[in-house]
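User: Putative RNA helicase dead-box protein, Kordia algicida OT-1:
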Amino acid sequence: MTKFEELGLQDSLLRAIQDMGFETPSEVQEKAIPILLNEETDIVALAQTGTGKTAAFGFPLIQKINADSRTTQGLILSPTRELCLQITNELKNYSKYENINVVAIYGGASITDQARQVKKGAQIVVATPGRMQDMINRRMVDISKIEYCVLDEADEMLNMGFYEDITSILSHTPDDKSTWLFSATMPREVATIAKKFMHTPQEITVGSRNSGSDSVRHEFYAVSGRDRYLALKRLADANPDIFSVVFCRTKRDTQNVAEKLIEDGYNAAAIHGDLSQNQRDLVMKSFRTRQIQMLVATDVAARGIDVDDITHVINYQLPDEIETYTHRSGRTGRAGKNGVSMVIVTKSEMRKIKSIERKIQKKFEQKPIPTGIEICQVQLFHLANKIHNTEANDEIEDYLPAIMEIFEDTSKEELIKRMVSVEFNRFFNYYSKTRDLNQPKGNNEDRGSRGKSNEHSTRYFINVGSKDGYDWMRLKDFLKETLSLGRDDVYKVDVKESFSFFNTDNDKKEQVLAHFTDFKVEGRFVNVEESTNTGGGGGRRRRDGGGRRRRDGGGGDRRRSRRSENSFEGGGRRRRNENSGEKFRGRSRRK
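Assistant: Predicted structure for Putative RNA helicase dead-box protein:
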C-alpha cells in the first residue's frame, strides 16, 4: 500500500499527517495528490462522500500556496455552512506547521468580521456560494488573482440551486487558474460547469461513475404506506446500537417523525430548514457527541453533515432524484468502516429501487421487517452482553452488604432472570401482541390505503394534473400540506394530464370539501369535488350546461401517466422545494 511519503508531500505536511494519525492514503488521495502536486491542470475527481476528498485537494493546495504572500491564492466553494467550517478546520490542521491563513466565509455570521479576516491576509478562502457572491457584490473580497479554485461537493451545490452563483463567482477569477472539481456524482449540471469553466480537465474516478460505495450495504423493507413509522421503530429496536440519520422528504414529515420518536422514548431530534442556525448547531453538537441516536433530516439540512461512525442511513421516504440517494447513503460506511442504507418502501415504489440499482450499480437485498419476538430476542441478548461487559464501579462497595442482604433469598439464576427482565419486559409487553408488518407478495398497488374498502374512504376529483407540474408524490405533498393532514391520510393518488384523483378516510371528507370551497392559489381556483370514481374507471359526476349528468375523465383511475411514472428517473428534472407542495405551481394552458 502506498504511503503518504511516496506521494511527494513536503515534510511539514507529513508531520501534520502523522499528528492526525493518518497512515495510508485513500484511493482518491492516492490518485489525485501526485497529479495536483506535479502538474498545473484542471481536474474532475468523482468519489463518494466520506472517501477523503478534502485531504485529496487540501494537501496539494497547501503545498502550492506561497506562505510569504498575503494575497488570496486559493478559493474553495462548498455547499453548506457546516461543510465550509469543516473544510476550514481540516485545512488548519493540515497547515499547522505552515504560516498559512485559512478563512471561512458563510452565512449566519457577521459579514464585516469575515471581510476583516480576509483583508488581514487570507491565502485560502473557504466559502459558501451565497455569502461569497454577496461579498463580491459589496467589493469585500478580491479573487481576481487566485491560482486555484476548488469546487467541493459540486453536485450538491448545483442541486441546491447555486448554479448562477457559481458561474458568477467563477467569472471574477482568472482564466489561467487551475480548477479542481470534486463530486460524488456527475449529473448534467456538473458536466456543464466542467465544460464551460475548465480546460481539458483530467478525470479521476474512484469506483464506477455515479456508483455507490462498496462499504455500504443496501437493504429495503416493503410495508404498507401507513406502517412506515411502525417499521422505522422496529428497525431501530432490532439494532440496539444504531447511530443513524433518518431521511424524510419534507420539513413537516421530518418534524413529525422526530416528535413521534421522542414521545416513544428514543434519543432523536429533527434538523431542517425551519431551524435557526443556533438550533442547528445545538442539534449537530448533540448528534456528534451521541446524545442523539437518531437524527431525522431533510436532504437540504443534512448536506454538510460529516459525522464518522454513523451505522445506518434510513430512507423513511425515498428522494425524487437518484443522485440524492447516493448522497444519503454516503453518510454511512465512511473512513473504511461498513454501513447500512435501509429503505422503507411501499410496493408501488419498487420501481424506484430498480432505478437506484441501475444508477449506483449495487443490488438491494429485500429483508423482512423484524417481528416482535425477534426484536425481543435481540434486545434480551444485547442487554445481557451489556451487563456482562460493564465494569464494576468500586464506589458501590460501601453499599454491597445492604444490597446482598436484599438478594440473600434469591438464587443466581433467579437474580439474572429478574435483571434482564427489567428491560426485556418493556419490549415484550409492547411487541407480544403486535401484528406482522411485512407486505404480502403480489400487492404492487398499495399507496397507503392499507387495504381499506371503498365504503371506508372517500375519493375526490381535483382540477390539477401533470401539466401543472405534478406527479403523484408532489400532489400528495401539496394536499397534505394544504389540508394539514398526516402523510398517510392522503392515498390512492392518481394524476392525469389536467386533473387527478385522491382518497381520504370518510371522517376527513367534511374537512377536505370545506377547505377547497372558493380556494384559490395565485388567482386560480383549485376545485375539489367528491368523485364517483372508485379507482377502477369512470370519473367525477357533474352537470353539464343542459342540466344532464355526465362523466369526465374516461378511463378513470387507470395507471399514472407516463410522465409521472418516470418522474424519478430523469427526463426534465424539476427542482423541488424542501417543503414540496407548500406552493401550488398551477399554470393554465390556453389553446
